[in-house]
Design goal:
single chain, alpha/beta, Arginase, Chain A, 9 helices, binds zinc ion
Amino acid sequence: MSEQNLKEMLVFYNKKQCSNENVGYSPSAKKPKLVVQAWKQSGYPVNIQKIRALSVEEISVAHDKNYVKGILGGKIKNGFGNKSLPVAKSLQWTTGSFLAAAVYAYRQKVSTFSPTSGFHHAGYSYANGFCTFNGLMIAAILLKKQHKAKQIGILDLDSHAGDGTANTIAKTNSGDFVRHYSLGEQEIQKHNNVEWLEHLPNLIRENFDGSDVLFYQAGVDCHEDDPEVYAGHFTTEQLYTRDKLVYTTCKELNIPVVTNLAGGYQKPLQKVIDLHNLTAKAFQDS
Ligand SMILES: [Zn+2]
C-alpha cells in the first residue's frame, strides 16, 4: 500500500477520557491512549479531533437524571464498582468523544473513530459490567433531537449482549429510530462462525440500509483466546475479515461508520491493542 492511498483516520480523543485510577479488571480506562499510540506508530494518518465533556443534561437524554447526578457526584457506584470522582469525570469525556465522533460522521458523511469502551451494559438507570453511561444511546438520541437524524444503526460486535443498550432503547422509546444488532445475543460459536461471517454483509444490508450513520462496536473480546469470550470465538484473521466486511458493506450502502473499541481482555494488554490495530488496518484496506 503506497502512502497516498492511506485514509485519514479522524480520531476524537482527549487524554481526559483516560483515568489513571485502578479500575480493576477492565483495561478500558487506559486503553484509549495506547490504541491511539499504536495507530500512529503503524503509520496510519491519525488526525486527532477536539472533544468536550458532556453535561448532566446531555447524558440525561438517555438516563435517569438522578442516576446521572448520583454517578457524577460519587454517590452511586459506577460500572467499575467504585465511587471515584476522577473516574466519574472521565465518563463525561468518553461519552463526549463518542458524541463528537457521531456528530461529525453524520454531518460530514465520513467515517470517524472514538477510542472508547464501556457503553453497552449501561442501562437507563443502572451501571453494569464496566459500563456506566450508554454513550451509544446518548449520541443516538442527541443526533435525532439536535441534528434531525432519522435512522441510527448500532452494530454491536462485542462478544457480550448489548443488554444496557436494549434497556435504554426501551426506556427512552427510541425503537422507532434506532436499529440495534448485538452479536452477544446470538449463539455464535466455532461451529457456525464461518457461516455468520459470510452472512455479515447481508446482515448489515438487512438491518441498517437507509441509516444516516452506523455506530460500530468493534469489540475484540469475541476472539477465541479472550478469557471472557462468549459469542464469536473468531480467529485473528476472522476478526480482520469481520472489520473489513463492515467497512466495505457500509461504503457500498453509503453509511458513515463511527467505530469504537468496546471489549477485549487478553493478557498482556498488548494482545488487545494489536487486535484494535487490525481494525485500523481493515479500515485502510477497505
Ligand atoms: Zn464484551
